[in-house]
Amino acid sequence: MAYPTTMYGATDPNCPVSPEVRQWFAIVDTDGSGSITATELKSALANGQGGTFSDTACNLMIGLFDKDNSGTIDLLEFQALYNYINAWMGVFHGFDHDNSGSIQENELNAALTQMGYRLSPQFISFLIKKNDPTRHSSITVDQFIVLCVRIQRFTDAFRIRDTNKVGTITIGFEDFLSILFDCSI
Fold first, then answer.
1. The whole model's pTM is what?
2. What DSSP designation does 137 have?
3. How far is CA 102 from CA 4, 110, 113, in A?
């Protein structure tokens, strides 16, 4: 199974934008500005539990695709985001075995294991608790995307510092803080 990667989508100006993406862009761009903010994005994305994507998820996704740091995304950036969200939705639904619209601990464990992470049951439980503000012991698709992006960012930062490839690093306090601030949303 292929998973979305740290390559957050192409924004190639020569790549044609699909009519479906153009239509969604027009719907999401409620103020007609030609760009989409995190607030506009939030109003358009449902999390499968009767709510919208979180502010955290929307800000993360705008930040991933906002190539000019304007705080908004244009049509080409939106196309990359659209593809990215659909890829993550596919991953999420592939592990939401009971079709509940959320992933429980065993489903999250299966997803992360298939992605190559070997985490203890206690840590999986910790991840669910940290990412589930409602305390239903499950996470929605937007929480899943944020969690997976965070894990990938921390993994990338760890790998850079694990020069001997032994799974252990020694880190200075300021370097540790820089990782937290670089990887936080």
1. 0.77
2. S
3. 19, 14, 18
pLDDT in single tens digits along all 185 residues of the chain: 444 443 344 445 566 888 999 998 999 999 999 999 999 998 888 766 667 888 988 998 898 899 898 999 999 999 999 898 888 889 999 999 888 888 999 999 999 999 899 999 999 999 998 887 776 788 988 889 889 888 888 888 899 999 989 989 999 999 889 888 877 65
Place of tokens 């509940």: 100
Let me know: does 153 contact 183? Beta carbons within 8 Å.
yes
Longest dimension (CA), the chain: 52
The rounded distance, in Å, linking the Cα atoms of 102 and 43 is 20
* Dihedral, 22, 66, 148, 111 alpha carbons, nearest 10: 20
In angstroms, the CA 128 to CA 137 distance is 6
